Amino acid sequence: MAKEKFSHPRQPRKKGVTKKPRGQSVAAEFKESPYMNADYVKDEGGVLEVTIGSSKREEMSDGSETKLVLYWDDMKVKPLVLNKTNGRFLVRKIGEFPGNWVGRTLRIENEETPIGPGPRITEVLDSQFAVEDDLSEEEDEEEDEEIDV
Question: Where in the chain are the domains?
Fold first, then answer.
């Protein structure tokens, strides 16, 4: 039996789709993201103090899921897509209803994660509004498993 030669037929390019210029990295795409990322925080001095203006559930660009996005009083600051860690932090410190987060001021810094640096909410600055966190570390971890932000 003769082996068949396997080839990939060249697919015609869809209209309006352009090829990326040679040498443009994926990192450049992340830097141009409409949302806050590690590069943005770094470019803004490494620490941001922002006041929540609103929150909104949005479908991510890949269409795979919907996430909660925080928008700030200062519209020039890029919005933050909440990951589980940042969402759990806000639930523990402020409460579980995003509508109650509006007007709260947060400190955001980059933190190293298993997949690289990322923006991390490190403190609620208007602490007189913060919910008392009286859980032990073990209870805190159990609660984190139950929360789906």
Answer: 33-146
